[in-house]
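Re: Re: ligand-bound prediction request (bumping)

Still looking for help on this. To restate: I need the protein modeled with 4'-deoxy-4'-aminopyridoxal-5'-phosphate bound, output as structure tokens. Inputs repeated here so nobody has to scroll up.
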Amino acid sequence: QTHLLSLSLQAKMSRPVQARRLEGIDKNIWVEFVKLAATYSTVNLGQGFPDFPPPDFLKEAFVRALSGENHMLHQYTRAFGHPPLVKILAQFFGKLLGRDLDPMTNVMVTVGAYQALFCCFQAFVDDGDEVIIIEPFFDCYEPMVKMAGGMPVFVPLRPKAPKDGKLMSSADWQLDPAELASKFSDRTKAIVLNSPNNPLGKVFSRGELEVIADLCVKYDVLCISDEVYEWLVYDGKEHIRIASLQGMWDRTVIIGSAGKTFSATGWKVGWTVGPNRLLQHLCTVHQNSVYHCATAAQEAVAQGFQRELKLYGKPESYFIQLPKELQQKRDWLVQSLDAVGMKPIIPEGTYFLVADISEFKSDVPDVPDSDEPYDSRFAKWMVKNKGLAAIPLSAFYCGAHKNNYNHFIRFCFAKEEATLKAANDILQKWKREKTNP
Ligand code: PMP
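Reply:
Sorry for the wait, this slipped through. Here it is.
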């Protein structure tokens, strides 16, 4: 009888435990590379986070929220966003977009931009709906679309070699308008736009955004606009919000992140801004999943934005100072990579930089029939043998396209001078060993 009982138990256990929606999306590049970096790296330019502190005014606001008189800041706040935060976000983005925003219906706070993205896909994508994703893309878009039952449709940014042997810029990576148009159809529900783009640092120009906007209007398509790097633009470039283009406000959700905006990725405060006709559905997903976000962190971010609204456009503004500092760090890493022959693609925005590893191929030879793209093996070899962590560009392409651009790696330069110098030392030493083996 015991035997029969164990048989019937086994039969029950053999049922698949995993929901079908999880099929094929169990691998995650960050889980793998963060672990490798933790084990082997002495200098980590892999995952995107600053190793310098957030500004004092923000940290002080958090401390005040935690230790001040208002003990209600330790309790739940409004589910769709702490009132002071949605109010200041409505004011701030209202100013940027040149329209009146209602804090209660045009803004929703999330657990980082990640949850904002998740809410969008769950709220808008039905079984079989197509979602256009521009490659290379922040990797979670693809599994999130699939988890919602949708079909990702990929369109690549195509690089054009610069003339006169100049270094390539992220602006040299462009969409082919005809190719983009060919991806739109009656089945298209949404397009994901990420400008400034992670990993390339491309800042889409007004002309490029207009091409996308015209197609969205023509095919009645929504735009999920991931703008987490909106303040990180360089060389006087302007970040243009696609929601401000004709016909786009009503069909766009803007996504932002205090993690990137205030160099505090661990706080996981994000937001969505958009028309009520879209945001009300994000609220439905939010109220049935996360529901509340951390109150004290929202209070501190609200105070950060209040300060920034007062100082808007002034030299003391963090939104002016941070990109200025990051531009120097970018230039530093560009020089350092260029000097050793790991050709950098100069980013117009974000705190990432993609570099060409072709000249280092003799150190990590290709395995022609390997399932793993070359850049991924290279990045693993580099962290294990040189102690320098970076992320392979192929991680930002869908499965079928991973080998299209497989000789680039991405570095994060939101790092202290000492970290960047240590990276430079590793690269210089490596170069010397290559030249005089
Ligand atoms: N979108 C992009 C393009 C990102 O690079 C990131 C973070 N790496 C996120 C969204 C997620 O942001 P958060 O940490 O606020 O969830």
